[in-house]
Amino acid sequence: MFQIKNVTLSHKKDLRTILDGFSLTLSDGDRAVLIGEEGNGKSTLMKWIYDPELVEDYIEYSGEKILGGEKLGYLPQELPEEDKEKTVCEYFMESDGFADSTPKETAKMAADFSVAPDFFYREQTMATLSGGERVKAQMMRVLLERPTILLLDEPSNDIDIETLELLERLILGWPHAVLFISHDETLIERTANRVIHLEQIRRKTLCRHTVANVPYRQYVEERLRSFDKQEQIAQNERREKKIRDEKIRKMEQSVNSKLSDLSGVYHDSIGRLLKKKMKNVKSMEKRFAREDEDMTEMPEQEEAIFFKLGDKSSEIPAGKWVLEYEGQTLFAADGSRVLSQAPVLKIRGSEKIAIVGRNGCGKTTLLGKIAEAMLSRNDIHAEYMPQNYEELLDLEATPVDYLDTTGDKEERTRIRTYLGSLKYTADEMDHPIRELSGGQKAKVLLLKLSMSGANVLILDEPTRNFSPLSGPVIRRMLKEFPGAIISVSHDRKYLSEVCDRILRLTPEGLTEDFLFHRNASYGIIKNTDKEG
Question: Can you spell out the DSSP letters for 154-176?
Answer without folding.
Answer: STTTT--HHHHHHHHHHHHH-SS
